[in-house]
Here is the input.
Amino acid sequence: MALNLILLVLLLVAGIWTVLTTRLVRSVVGLALVSAVVSILIFRLNSPLAAAFELSVCAGLISVIFVTTISFTQRLTAERLEERRKERLGKYWYLPVILIIFGILLVVFKPKLDFPLPQVPSEQDTRNIIWHMRHVDLLGQILIILAGVFGVVILFKEPKK
Amino acid sequence: MVPLFVLIPFFSIIILNLFPKKLMQHLSFVWLGFLSLAQVYLVAARPVWFWDTKLELWNLLFSFRYSVDVITLVMLLCIGIVVFISLLASRAMISDVHQRVNFKNLLLVSLIGMNATVLVTDVFSLYVFIEITAVSSYIMIAMNKDRLGLEGAFKYLILSAIATVMMLVAISLLLLLTGNTSFEAVGAGLAGAGNSLFVRVSIGLFLCGLFIKSGLVPFHGWLPDAYSAAPAPASILLAGIVTKVSGVYVLMRLAISVFGLTPSVQALLMFIGAVSIIIGAVAALTQTDFKRMLAYSSISQIGYIILGVGCGTKLALIGAVFHLFNHAIFKSLLFVNAASVEKELGTTDMDKMGGLTQRMPVTGITSVIGLLSTAGIPPLSGFWSKFIIIIALWQAGNFGYAAFALLASIITLAYFLSMQRKVFFGKLRSGLENIKESSMGLIVSQAVLAIITLVVGLIFPLVISWR
Here is the structure.
């Protein structure tokens, strides 16, 4: 329980830092940290495969893509950075406040969420679900990748002169 | 053979992209035209060889659980028609060969996404295909890479992401509650779970996500920007069918077949529907941009559909589905009119137009048919669907909502007459003397949609049984 609480607090801190920081690389590190903590939480919920996916894809692959993209951009000047910091604080100051209020409300009202959860049959392994039970969703995954490829070609490829 | 509605377009994308680009642009036009028209034929004629034959061998390799009812058929029909019209418009409006090929690829992805959305019987699969349709829409809106297009796509992306999170959380909660994601299991699980906080939160989150996808007030912020900034063929597709499939249809399907129309869900839907009708209509009244005015008008008309769904009686649901079909047709028609005007004048600012019917008679006349149908003027198709919704509301004792829906039609007529006066009627504005009727693709599109609006309106009283 204590470890879960520590992880959840870490998740919130990393999430807020990701939004508030003005440096893109720091923002990516914050996002990777969020994913890493989520992976640990998923692992603790007895879903090791889902945790491995989250860690490798969200914390690993996506961070690498972000950092590669950022390496093509230029850094802002010190004055512009300060301006951005103030702008961002002005825009998102309420996020931590909302979270604290939401936390206080949860502690005060203690909503009853004691519903019976179904037992997941042991033979329903993730691999079995993906490859045998959800063909249609696999087709959807392929289509999302195709749409992404078309998106990159349309939006990022410069036409030949 | 119903899964072929998804599988043939899927394999088409892969095969068509193997051809050289020059050949592909002609081939994909013909093939996509054939696919969309075949879809219209298969739904309208319902040949037994297609609907009753099972693909046994294919089912061993690829399991696809689907269901087909009247609502599914209406949606498949609308998808076929609007995709065909958007394809014709792309031929006329997109001059660059590469962009034209790219648009057709996205149109195919969107076609698969929409067809699968209306066929699947599982909430998670539903979410997957809504997302596929949405991703292709973001790219279509931004494909010209101009500032407005990118802004419109970004707004749609951000609000859609919020909707996605809401729906995904709702699906997770429903999975926790029922142990499955099929419509049947979720429906049965919810029926047995009573009215707990958990059930209310999951249904509430799902509905809010779908309100955003449908562009209903107060979640409509993305819609006017996305519709008005998108290239014309994408606007036609978005306004004609995409929002209806990924928002309105899913909302209707889940409310009827999965969540059940409980009194609280009904009250929420009717309230949101009524607010959307009035805010959309009043906002449309104040617009000076042709496409933005049509976008706000869409919000108002979708409000009528949701009002019908919220009423929940059999007659109201018939009216809602019929209005969904009509709106897909006449809103596509009005967006093709806007595309015609935009192509010839290079602007959609209504203050720079006037007397265009003299130079563009087909566009002018068909726009009158579109506007009269939207405003619910007899004997056009829009009149019958609105009439059924209002009668159903009255019969169910919702007198206030019925009167409200009737009065809002007057505002609809007001903003469309104002548009007609500014754009098509009156003296030809100086500087527009050299304007001519737009290309054949757009003329055919307008004529087809106007004929459907007229014919459906004229034959409806002959085929309907009022008992």
